[in-house]
Specification:
The structure is a homodimer.
Chain A lengths: L8 H9 L14 E10 H13 L6 E4 L23 E5 L2 E6 L10 E7 L2 H9 L5 H4 L6 E7 L9 E9 L4 H9 L10 E2 L26 E6 L3 H9 L3 E5 L5 E6 L6
Antiparallel strand pairs in A: 1-5, 1-10, 1-11, 2-5, 3-4, 3-10, 6-7, 7-9, 8-9
Chain lengths: ~260, ~260
């Protein structure tokens, strides 16, 4: 699809709302923050809010909606959470049952939406710093992996962390850390540099979410905590109903990265 | 009382537990983070957790305890929340009714404790940077003021922000901002520099909490969001029961400032 990557966040959300943009959002709207999603009924919202507080690297909260509200109040204007992500996942009893582009029909008055920072946000800053984003270059979704890293449990929620990976030239490792560390609200600095096995990743060529990308000889895989972690938690804890975004298909916010540095 | 300021956090907590240390903690245990407190019944904990998420400058959460637990799990070991602050305040229907040094008798099985970062934490870093902390020099509690700044409401909780103030030499303003900005989890950068009236402070010589300090000619008052803000919220919203620390009488944690910079 030929959408200009410099489209405004609002225009991209409107395209997604109309079902006319259904692809990964990496690379779009450079400079603007992007977000993950998990929606839970109010009954489970306290435990998840506490889970996010205890796992801020994986689940940095940018906004939590009022109970039942479909609209964001702080991070974007005219933004309907039920339509403006390009793609959603419905999990029932911890099992992914449907992928849809609109969750209006699923909406409940007791839903609370957790809008969680996404590492796509800092990719434009990495590019500005001269660092290649391989999945952009190759036109793929970012590779995301289940790890052996235990999240800190909270109430009923527990499970393993999901990470995203970008292959980095060793000469740019320091720059990669310093540039991303400036944006803790969209995951910030990496959680691991190097050997995937050390964090329990089984096969670097078979990501559990997204697509594999080329790792050139000499490049080092660098891993960031990922906002798909709630989906790993949902698969582990099996709540009756949870709705998330589809990995890589993010909400682009009106908030700029620079606003998140304060 | 002659307690060495370089006492370990654990030893200071043990003195507080025995009722042998009942004074403001500013200056003690340099390099270690200090914390504010608000305790609410579980019924009100979701709204307050959301309030903290929406007001991270005033209420940066360092730890939220499991329901009914008196012990911290993440920020200090062998730390009893009901005894280890030097002084507590009991608020009933929004009114301060008692000040005590031990809340064991008040403890309920449905209590959730919110451990909130305190600006005392970064004072040792300011001192290392050559910046005088006036209330330390003068042996007083830090001055804290009610402001006209509205917090972002969440559920039942709303009200005005409380700030702490330190008079700063204009030549050290930039250093003051950069040093404190590195520690967002203990309030971070100032919220205002200069004219107190601009943030609704009525009389700089009459702080609502703590003690007034000398502002020398040419010095600029600098204001930080303060973890006494929950007490302003409690006075506004009037929950049936809330327990807080007494302003300035903080919990010293085992967590170091340097751990909070990650």
């Amino acid at each position: 699809m030929s959408v200009d990557i410099n489209i405004s966040p609002r225009e991209l959300r409107l395209l997604a709302r109309k079902g006319e943009f259904v692809e990964p959002t990496s690379g779009y709207c450079p400079g603007y923050a992007q977000a993950n999603l998990i929606i839970l009924p109010k009954e489970e919202a306290y435990d998840f809010l506490l889970f996010a507080q205890r796992n801020p690297k994986a689940c940095p909260l940018l906004e939590v909606t009022d109970v039942g509200s479909r609209m964001t109040k702080f991070t974007a204007t005219d933004c309907d959470i039920a339509t403006d992500f390009p793609k959603y996942r419905i999990y029932r009893d911890g099992v992914l049952t449907e992928e849809v582009t609109d969750i209006s029909e699923y909406w409940q008055d007791d839903f609370v939406a957790f809008i969680i920072g996404c590492s796509f946000s800092f990719e434009s800053e990495m590019i500005d710093a001269g660092i290649e984003i391989r999945h952009n270059t190759e036109g793929r979704n970012v590779p995301m992996y289940m790890t052996g890293i235990d999240c800190v449990p909270a109430g009923k929620f527990s499970g393993k962390m999901v990470v995203s990976m970008r292959p980095i030239n060793p000469k740019q490792l320091v720059k990669t850390v310093t540039v991303t560390a400036q944006l803790p609200k969209v995951h910030g600095s990496p959680i691991h540099i190097g050997d995937p096995a050390q964090i329990g990743i089984k096969d670097i060529n078979k990501p559990e979410f997204g697509d594999a990308v080329t790792i050139n000889p000499g490049e080092v895989p660098v891993f960031w905590p990922c906002g798909v972690t709630p989906q790993s938690i949902v698969m582990n804890v099996k709540p009756k109903l949870a709705i998330t975004h589809a990995p890589g298909y993010m909400l682009v916010l009106d908030v700029k990265n620079v606003d998140l540095k304060e």
